[in-house]
Amino acid sequence: MQKKRKKRRKRILKMMRTMKKTKKRKKNLQVRKARSEQRCAAIHKHSTCHKLWRQHRHKRSIASRFVDLEAEVSDEDEEEEEDEDYGADGFIETVDDVEDDGGRRHHAALDSRLQVEEDQTPEQIARDLSRRYGGRAAVRYTGDMNEIPQRLLMPSVHDASLWQVRVRPGRERDIVFSLMRKAIDVEYSARPLNILAAFQRDSLPGMIYVEARSSQQVSQACNGLVGVFPSRGIQLVPIEEMASLLQIKKQDLTVTPGSWVRIRRGKYAGDLAQVMDITENGEDVGLKFIPRIDLNPRDDGPLDGRKRKKTATATGTMRPPQRLFNYEEIIKVWGRKHVSKRNQVFVFQNDTYKDGFIEKDFKLSALILEDVNPTLDEITQFTRRQDGAEADGVVDLSIIAEASRKAAISVLQPGDHVEVFEGEQAGVHGVVDEIHQDVVIITAIGVDIDGQKVELPARSVRKRFKPGDHVKVMTGQNADETGLVVSVADNVVTFLSDMSMQEVSVFSKDLREAAEVGSGTNIIGNYELHDLVQLDAQTVGVIYKTERDSFRVLDQNGQVRLVQPHQISMRRDSVRAIATDSEGHELRINDNVKEIDGEARKGRVLHTHQSFFAFLHNRDIVENGGVFVTRTRSLASLAPKGNLLKAGTDLSKMNPALAPPTGGMVGSGNMGRGPRDRDIGLTVCVIKGPHKGYVGTIKDTNGPAVRVELRTGNKVITLEKDKLRERLPNGKLVQLTGRGSSSGSGSMGPPTNYGGGARTSNPYAGGPQNGAGSRTPGWGAGRTPNPYGEGRTPAWNASSRTPNPYAEGGKTPAWNASSRTPNPYAADGGRTPAWNANSRTPNPYASGSGSGGTSATWGGATPGRNVGGWGGATPGRPAASGWGSGVDSWSDNTGWGASSAPTPGAATPGFNSATMTPGTTWPASTPGYVFGAGGNGNNLSAPTPGGIPSTYRPEADDIDLDDMWIFDSAFANYQQRIKVQVHGTRVSNYLNGDFEGKTGRIKAATKSSAEFDQSALIAFDSGEERSILVRYLLPAPPEFLHSEALVLAHKDEKNKGKVVIIREVPDDIIPVSTMSDPSFVFEVKRDFLAALYKDQ
Amino acid sequence: MAEQGAAAIPSQARSKQLRACLLCSIIQLPVDFRRNGCPNCEELMQMKGNSDRIATCTTTYFDGVISVIDPENSWVARWQRTSKYVRGLYAVRVKGRVPEDVEAELDNRGIKYRPRDQTDHD
């Protein structure tokens, strides 16, 4: 304001200055100057905003000046004004090089006004002004901007920019209001707001838009307002988007009388209502709907309004049911004076009731206008009269049809069969080709326009069905019901449900033609088709059919029940249940089985119950949806499964006693549980660690880890075994014997109760413990002498890295059972299939088996063996069955030689010690066995011990043959008669391999000192005599029935070195008897027998 | 600016009672409409002291609030055709049409009536 005043004064002064230049009217000028100053004062005194505004507008639009003058200057002034204008114009024309045209006119106007006001008394002016602007006479509405087309109002670059400001959602309007108030408050302060406008849109939550020249002005304006987040950025709105922000338009929700709405909240929330009338401004809507009158008011008798209100809210949780207004009922409950009657209208509790309906005005905002979807039931209620009679007999579905028509458009799809029910084409039907929003193009069928494409408004077509169509309900409460159309009336289709065999009426818009039969859903509530459900404590059943809201259940007794979901106490799960079938095989769900008796029905196991009942399903059976119940004992598997018992199954797998307690080493998932560790239950004392001195009981063991329940504190802790000592009743602490502390020292541990004797009943008893990864110290003590040294170990070690069949070489036929890969050696007669049995990776040597090449590879290994001092052992070898199935097998065992090279130094003392112990009472120390032991916890570097524990076999009683068997004193008497075979020379090219495979008798064999290779003089069958290194000599197994043989090794030490007679055709295990006592027959492995030549 | 020309700024932004003039879209409380009428178009609407008239000439059904601080220079005000009106709060969009008599009067004066519901496009 002040600014403007200043501005004007400046301008006037400027004018004055220019005037001074012209001397022509100097006097006049002076007069004017005086006048204008006087006038300025007067104007300031009386000036109004409007005046200034008008002046401002002059600047903007020349044309509007006239409008304004007309509007604001009274008639009586006009003449004078014109006069003055004329004069002023003439005057100012002389200075038009200084002032622009607008300025000139402005001055003219100003001048004229000054002139006019000059001639009036201040009183007159004041009166004039108050008449003009104050009081009733309002500003004349001109609407002069209304003529301008909107597009010309588009923002230009000269306009201020719009800035988007983030605000707290829900506070947008408050902030816009605050900005307005703030702008007024600080208007005359030192820092007025420099924003021009701010606005908010309901459809753009969380942001307001501020019009300003710079973002700084925006942030200044927003500064200090609560809920504004200028830190989240004040973003410029691109100029082209400015207009659209103000053009956002909500989808107009129009209500028309007769349309259906729902009430948003309150007692009638969700209730359907029909619009009766709408107030002119569209705010209030008169509705008609079914009242909910509480017919059980809590307090009987007369109530004052306040109290009633209270009860109404108290009972708010239980809203009364919908019920048409019944005068008699109401007065009975509420009393006559609560209801008044005017004409046909009842007034009750300030609501009016007509024809049983309540008629009430609602705000538009309190109504739901979209997705009303009235159901047929609801609509039918509306058409009912107060007395309960149907109004006009028929349901007027046009109302609902109208309401649902909008929805109907959206469900149309190309290919739908439709008919036109209104408009010019009414009656035409066809197939929908295209849909463009509200327009559908159909190909007409029949009549004269057959095949033509017709464009139609979507609202005037509806889906067409004819009796006999098979339909499916897509939406609504009958959704997924299918059936056969029996009648079509307008857009209501009645069909016979496939499921309930009842007639169902639905709108055609909700239907589709469908070929499928039955319910699409198999799920009701939490229950699904084929679920095993508990019906009562004794009864379970399987759902074989779902209906609308019930199930058909076949219980375990074969009875069929119709069950409601609430009658089911729970759903059962038999996924993990295992039953046993007639063959003793396990029976799980989803197994395909058949009955072995009765009807021999086949089916898939849905569920088993208590391992006794099996619910089967077979689609081919019509009865009970293909579900039937049988006993598991009368079932047999249709498809044999891998886990079924087969002949030759690895019994070690079946016998949990044989399985090492730790499953992890084997790596096969089907390890059984280990035997109960003998340590479990022992009273132990902790000797190391933070719990040192505590006494407890072993609750569980897991390899070297033990869970000990402490006496103190009732705590279970996990400890390593070597931190424990058994606490005897007398308080003495004893090593946990034989239970494998993980130490590999091999030096400790009295083999007290661990000896072979203790376990003879179970020759494998050692197995589990070794499998557990611990070599018992006891062993080492007994077996330490290791005659082999390094020579042999490489091979062993190598085999431990790879699934070298040799590692399992010592294994007996039992291996075969657990064989998982085809046995490549199966063709070899001499070999036990067991060899490769456990090799889980392809045997790299398999190809060489049985070929000449094998001996070549073998050679590599031989020296190693010899170095170990094998040589002297030759005579004993044939008896050493531990090496495999025999000489033949050796020759083919390429794995040995080849693998011997890579890893020297990995020698496991354990291995040697175990294998070497002649005379030990420990029968089970086969190479494989010991190897496994070493691999599990000792200094063997073998990374693949996994396969080892599985190498245990029942035949672990075999004894290994000493490499120096030939020199065994037990055979000394028969040494000259032992038939030996040269083996493995080709690998090392010993004597060019010429003697490979040749057999002969030992002429002389004397152990030389350890530094030298041991050799023996062999008289070959071919007649030659040659000294052969003993490490190439293997015992030749007996070949004939009743021939003599020497027992090189036997579990019964007494039998070692005995000459026996072969009692049966030589096989892997040969029953023999001594000559002296033919009745004493015992079995010896072929490998541990050496054929004897006739005594010379 | 002249104080007399400003609209009453409602104190409560959330008030459900806020009403927008159907002709000029200014937002005021009913009490302000009754006391002072519409600051822009009272001449036509004659709402002052007339509650019924207020009910027909204003509505609560509007969308978007603009605070017009500098009407003459604001593009927003120009776009909304309120730049010659007093400053105050205006609605972006007002549903409904003015009563017929007002419309007829506008017609007589040769003023094009533009409903504020953004239905016309030009």
UniProtKB/TrEMBL annotation, chain A:
<dbReference type="InterPro" id="IPR036735">
    <property type="entry name" value="NGN_dom_sf"/>
</dbReference>
<dbReference type="InterPro" id="IPR057936">
    <property type="entry name" value="KOWx_Spt5"/>
</dbReference>
<dbReference type="GO" id="GO:0032784">
    <property type="term" value="P:regulation of DNA-templated transcription elongation"/>
</dbReference>
<dbReference type="Pfam" id="PF23291">
    <property type="entry name" value="KOW4_SPT5"/>
</dbReference>
<dbReference type="InterPro" id="IPR022581">
    <property type="entry name" value="Spt5_N"/>
</dbReference>
<dbReference type="InterPro" id="IPR039659">
    <property type="entry name" value="SPT5"/>
</dbReference>
<keyword id="KW-0804">Transcription</keyword>
<keyword id="KW-0539">Nucleus</keyword>
<feature type="region of interest" description="Disordered">
    <location>
        <begin position="729"/>
        <end position="919"/>
    </location>
</feature>
<dbReference type="InterPro" id="IPR005100">
    <property type="entry name" value="NGN-domain"/>
</dbReference>
<dbReference type="InterPro" id="IPR039385">
    <property type="entry name" value="NGN_Euk"/>
</dbReference>
<feature type="domain" description="NusG-like N-terminal">
    <location>
        <begin position="159"/>
        <end position="249"/>
    </location>
</feature>
<dbReference type="InterPro" id="IPR006645">
    <property type="entry name" value="NGN-like_dom"/>
</dbReference>
<dbReference type="Pfam" id="PF03439">
    <property type="entry name" value="Spt5-NGN"/>
</dbReference>
<feature type="region of interest" description="Disordered">
    <location>
        <begin position="298"/>
        <end position="317"/>
    </location>
</feature>
<dbReference type="InterPro" id="IPR005824">
    <property type="entry name" value="KOW"/>
</dbReference>
<dbReference type="GO" id="GO:0006368">
    <property type="term" value="P:transcription elongation by RNA polymerase II"/>
</dbReference>
<feature type="domain" description="Spt5 C-terminal">
    <location>
        <begin position="773"/>
        <end position="945"/>
    </location>
</feature>
<dbReference type="GO" id="GO:0006357">
    <property type="term" value="P:regulation of transcription by RNA polymerase II"/>
</dbReference>
<feature type="domain" description="KOW">
    <location>
        <begin position="586"/>
        <end position="611"/>
    </location>
</feature>
<dbReference type="InterPro" id="IPR041978">
    <property type="entry name" value="KOW_Spt5_5"/>
</dbReference>
<dbReference type="InterPro" id="IPR008991">
    <property type="entry name" value="Translation_prot_SH3-like_sf"/>
</dbReference>
TrEMBL record, chain B:
<keyword id="KW-0862">Zinc</keyword>
<comment type="similarity">
    <text>Belongs to the SPT4 family.</text>
</comment>
<keyword id="KW-0539">Nucleus</keyword>
<dbReference type="GO" id="GO:0000993">
    <property type="term" value="F:RNA polymerase II complex binding"/>
</dbReference>
<dbReference type="GO" id="GO:0032044">
    <property type="term" value="C:DSIF complex"/>
</dbReference>
<dbReference type="GO" id="GO:0000775">
    <property type="term" value="C:chromosome, centromeric region"/>
</dbReference>
<keyword id="KW-0863">Zinc-finger</keyword>
<dbReference type="InterPro" id="IPR022800">
    <property type="entry name" value="Spt4/RpoE2_Znf"/>
</dbReference>
<comment type="subunit">
    <text>Component of the SPT4-SPT5 complex. Interacts with RNA polymerase II.</text>
</comment>
<dbReference type="GO" id="GO:0006355">
    <property type="term" value="P:regulation of DNA-templated transcription"/>
</dbReference>
<comment type="function">
    <text>The SPT4-SPT5 complex mediates both activation and inhibition of transcription elongation, and plays a role in pre-mRNA processing. This complex seems to be important for the stability of the RNA polymerase II elongation machinery on the chromatin template but not for the inherent ability of this machinery to translocate down the gene.</text>
</comment>
<dbReference type="Pfam" id="PF06093">
    <property type="entry name" value="Spt4"/>
</dbReference>
<protein>
    <recommendedName>
        <fullName>Transcription elongation factor SPT4</fullName>
    </recommendedName>
</protein>
<keyword id="KW-0479">Metal-binding</keyword>
<dbReference type="InterPro" id="IPR009287">
    <property type="entry name" value="Spt4"/>
</dbReference>
<dbReference type="GO" id="GO:0008270">
    <property type="term" value="F:zinc ion binding"/>
</dbReference>
<feature type="domain" description="Spt4/RpoE2 zinc finger">
    <location>
        <begin position="18"/>
        <end position="95"/>
    </location>
</feature>
<keyword id="KW-0804">Transcription</keyword>
<dbReference type="InterPro" id="IPR038510">
    <property type="entry name" value="Spt4_sf"/>
</dbReference>
<dbReference type="InterPro" id="IPR029040">
    <property type="entry name" value="RPABC4/Spt4"/>
</dbReference>
<dbReference type="GO" id="GO:0140673">
    <property type="term" value="P:transcription elongation-coupled chromatin remodeling"/>
</dbReference>
<keyword id="KW-0137">Centromere</keyword>
